[in-house]
Design a protein that fits this description.
homodimer; 117 residues; alpha+beta; three-stranded antiparallel beta sheet; 5 helices; DNA-binding
DNA sequence: TGCCTACATATAGAGAGCCTACATGTAGAC
DNA sequence: GTCTACATGTAGGCTCTCTATATGTAGGCA
């Protein structure tokens, strides 16, 4: 129920951001809301994390952005590039491997059900 | 397969270390080997990560250590304290929550089987 | 008019921890 | 005499996330 430990998020933020942009372009503020909603309220990622991360992902080519004005307010809308989609697939498989590896150390006796996509 | 991304380990190292010490005291070098073995070779945590982390965990009271000489070589053997055992339980539940939360964002449609301990 | 909240983006600087690289030393094999 | 495995440790760097702050619009409310 408590919030997720920020340190644990390290190295997973990219996957999170690419993932919410998979099916529709969104602007930063909406991305934060989507993250909160999808996680059932467990994730409340601060703007100081999200905005720099989005710029970083754009810089490396995983995202592209353009400005729009909606209701008098300016938005920078991000969308996944082809490169970003590829990266997302990689992040997903890395995530599955990661949970498998850590899980195998943390709970050696646990029968892990890895559901296929 | 590939090694786990070091950044992803952030915030999980404590859980990993406490976990391998759960049932038996071990010295640093053996801890690294245990981590590698339990993970099926996927984890190769460098000494520059493990030794400082062990000291940190001792400093906060989760571990206790004592020196021993075995075969002419000096070892610092760490064991889990009561406080550390408590912390390990917390880390495990945090891990389950963490994977649930990230998983729900990364793979919203996936049926997740959360096996009970 | 002024205040507050929601919407929306952005940067500076701090903090933490994992990494690379290096330093040191013993034991045993060849 | 050299090499590898065993064994511990520190210094410094790097990157990412966070807190705090700045800026500005729109709309509700008193």
């Amino acid at each position: 129920m408590g919030d997720v430990n920020p340190d644990a998020l390290r190295g997973h933020m990219d996957a999170l951001l690419l993932s919410v942009l998979e099916h529709e372009p969104l602007h930063g503020y909406a991305i934060i809301e989507a993250l909160t909603e999808r996680s059932g309220g467990a994730l409340s990622v601060p703007t100081g994390t999200v905005y720099p991360a989005l710029r970083r992902l754009e810089r490396v080519g995983y995202l592209a952005s353009e400005w729009a004005t909606v209701g008098g307010r300016k938005r920078r809308t991000y969308r996944l590039t082809a490169s970003g989609a590829k990266q997302l697939a990689g992040e997903r498989s890395a995530w599955r491997e990661f949970t498998g590896v850590i899980g195998s150390v943390l709970e050696p006796g646990l029968r892990r059900a890895e559901a296929a996509g």
